[in-house]
Amino acid sequence: MRCIYTGLVLAVLWGTGCGGTKDSDDDNNPGPGGEPGGTINLADFYKSGSRIKAQVTTTTDGLRWPDEWHDSKLKKPCTWETAGADGALYCVPGGMEYIPNGGSGYYFDASCTEGIVVTSEPVAATDFFVKRSTGCGVNPRYHTVGAEITTSVYAKSSSGTCSSIPVSTGFKAYRPGPEVAAGTFVRATVKQKQTDKGVTVHFMEGEDGSAQFHHVQDTARNTECAIQKASDNKLRCLPSGATTASGNAAIASVNSTCTEPAFYSTCGTPEFAVTFEQDRCGPGAKVYATGAKVTQIYGTTGTGSCQAHPQTPPNFTYYRAGAEIAAASFVEAKELDIKTFGRLKVRGAGMGDKVQIPMMLHDTQLNTPCAFMKDSAGAKRCFPTSSIFSTGTLFADDACKNPVGLANTTTCTPDRYVLANDVSNPSDTTYRAYNVGQQFNGTVYVSMVFGTGAPRCMQTERIPGSTYYTLGSEIAAASLVLGTTKVE
């Protein structure tokens, strides 16, 4: 399955460059150049149709920024997924229960062949379930809710044992109904909209007139590519998607010193292997041809030692790196500012003379990327996004009074801000922002709750490769740009 996500940056990876930017505030051409005889504006990257409606965040300065899609007929949020027998893109409601198909889970029969759903959530007739195959290359299928099961059901364990169990109090079990009929979800096709110097840009076009950016294609290698910083410290469109395996030696390695990355893929045989960018100011990603498969991988423990992993996810295949492919052979992208709305700029990247991809928002007053998130009062604000994040559970003292944030970068100049999860509001996900304090090298403590007791403050291990910081003064939420979210 392939999901097309919106939110921050329209499905393109961004590696922040260190060079200058340029403004492109011409209202007659605020977006990328298009096919001969026309242009594509910012609004075209996220466009409502007659049924699929864009949820966007707007500001008083005229900014319109994507959030998510809504199916106005089904009255549900939806995401674009490759699905069904035809493998087309459909805008499918989220939050579905999964029907097992041979693996662990709940079943109707004693041989554990007919998967069912057991849930504590109320299920309405308008909800749909996803039925997945365990094999590669098989798209999910969707079924209506079937009959409720009031007798015992069967559960299949990870060892393959199938046993009868009663349905627990407060839970309900359902058989899947018929597969959903054609037209239940809106279908989209992918079409090429731009081309320039080694790349083409493709959009999804919904049958109802909705549209969204889909991907950039490297025409020389016939692969999707994502914009990120390459090993020559330039932004380039590097291989991504189904043709590409990813790797980072800190996560998985092919050697017992955890210095040579293992590249993993979940389906098929990848053609390229790409390292993760280590940090924003250091060397960028390297691209290799995919090497030989490996069956034993290694990883770094909490104490920093390198040990063999006892097992790997069953759907992951790992590879060594083959020959490195020169960074200069990939299409270069230039960081640029596409359009300004008050103190916020839409920042993106350009390739060739025409292609421009909007990618992120930049707060010119704080001089930092920002993203719309809820503040403690529930209002949408463009909070500074940061490599330093505070969960609200890590502290610099054994009384758990002085919180710390952590960053997964070690050599890059740290951000000046900390984005913090507001734990004082447990009923909703809200945020606070702080100026960064001093680097913290001492013992780290964690606040944990056991059962129904009060939180306990306990010493915890430092995460290898992470740097900890104290929190400075809070940035008032009211000083950040206010956004209004609506479904068009």
How would you characterize the overall build of this protein?
By secondary structure, this protein is mainly beta. It contains no helices and 40 strands. The chain has strands at 3-4, 46-47, 52-58, 64-71, 76-83, 88-93, 98-99, 105-107, 117-119, 128-131, 141-149, 153-156, 162-165, 172-179, 187-196, 199-206, 211-218, 223-229, 235-239, 244-247, 263-265, 272-275, 287-294, 298-300, 306-308, 317-325, 334-341, 344-351, 355-363, 368-374, 380-384, 388-390, 394-395, 404-407, 417-421, 431-440, 444-448, 456-460, 467-475, 482-487. β16 and β17 (211-218) form a beta hairpin. Pfam families: DUF7481 (PF24297).
Helix and strand arrangement:
Blueprint: E1 3-4, E2 46-47, E3 52-58, E4 64-71, E5 76-83, E6 88-93, E7 98-99, E8 105-107, E9 117-119, E10 128-131, E11 141-149, E12 153-156, E13 162-165, E14 172-179, E15 187-196, E16 199-206, E17 211-218, E18 223-229, E19 235-239, E20 244-247, E21 263-265, E22 272-275, E23 287-294, E24 298-300, E25 306-308, E26 317-325, E27 334-341, E28 344-351, E29 355-363, E30 368-374, E31 380-384, E32 388-390, E33 394-395, E34 404-407, E35 417-421, E36 431-440, E37 444-448, E38 456-460, E39 467-475, E40 482-487
Parallel strand pairs: 7-10, 20-22, 32-35
Antiparallel strand pairs: 1-5, 2-17, 3-4, 3-40, 4-5, 5-6, 6-15, 8-12, 9-14, 10-11, 11-14, 12-13, 15-16, 16-17, 17-18, 18-19, 20-21, 21-26, 22-23, 23-26, 24-25, 27-28, 28-29, 29-30, 30-31, 31-40, 32-34, 33-37, 34-39, 35-36, 36-39, 37-38
Protein name: DUF7481 domain-containing protein
Organism: Myxococcus landrumensis
InterPro entries: DUF7481 (IPR055904)
